[in-house]
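Predict structure. Chain length: 64.
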Amino acid sequence: MTEKQRFLIYTHFAGLLASIRKNNKVSISEAVKIMLSNGIIQKLEDLETGYYLESDAYLERVLI
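Prediction complete.
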């Protein structure tokens, strides 16, 4: 994984985390639990999915 890919993944991670917190009115730790239980983090880190190249809006529709 390149630094650029890692940056994109973590940027999306932060955006999706904020969306989950806002939409579900939960704490950061609860939002992380939701992301882990739904496999969102794993899907973002899997370079073959190409999710790290997509917009946050698209990822919200597809992953959340």
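Summary: The radius of gyration is 11 Å.
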